[in-house]
């Protein structure tokens, strides 16, 4: 899969996880770039790095939603 397709798929996934739609494309590009860096730094597959970063983002949005509700 090419990078633009990856970013479009990541953007859709980010939206389902709670990312604001207006920021999803930009965040997907940043996520893809950081995942590549993290994969190289930790010598792990890129997919594993993406999964790790997505989990961190999901936790952050969940925490924000919880504090917004308080």
Number of helices: 3
Structural class by sheet pairing and helices: mainly alpha
Spans of at least 5 consecutive residues with low confidence: none
Percent range for helical residues?
over 70%
Determine Rg (CA atoms, Å): 13 Å
Give the topology string: H per helix, E per strand.
HHH
Name the average pLDDT: 86
Q: How would a crystallographer describe the biggest sheet?
A: none
Number of domains: 1
Approximate strand percentage: under 5%
**Cα distance, first to last residue?**
42 Å
Q: Give me the count of strands.
A: 0
Gross morphology: globular
Q: Which features characterize this protein?
A:
70 residues, mainly alpha
Question: What would you note in describing this structure?
Answer:
The protein has about 70 residues and is mainly α. It has one domain (about 5-70). Helix content is about 85%, strand content about 0%. It is built from three helices and no strands. It has helices spanning about 5-15, 20-40, 45-70. The longest helix is centred in the C-terminal third of the chain and has 24 residues, at about 45-70. It is globular, with a radius of gyration of 13 Å. The chain starts with a helix and ends with a helix.
In short:
By secondary structure, the protein is an all-alpha fold. The chain is 86% helix and 0% strand.
Task: Give the SSE map.
Blueprint: H1 3-16, H2 21-42, H3 46-69
Helix pairs in contact: 1-2, 2-3
């Amino acid at each position: 899969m090419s990078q633009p397709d990856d970013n479009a798929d990541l953007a859709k996934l980010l939206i389902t996880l709670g990312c604001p739609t207006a920021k999803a494309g930009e965040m997907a590009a940043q996520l893809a770039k950081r995942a590549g860096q993290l994969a190289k730094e930790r010598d792990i597959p890129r997919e594993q790095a993406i999964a790790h970063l997505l989990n961190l983002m999901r936790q952050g949005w969940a925490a924000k939603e919880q504090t917004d509700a308080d």
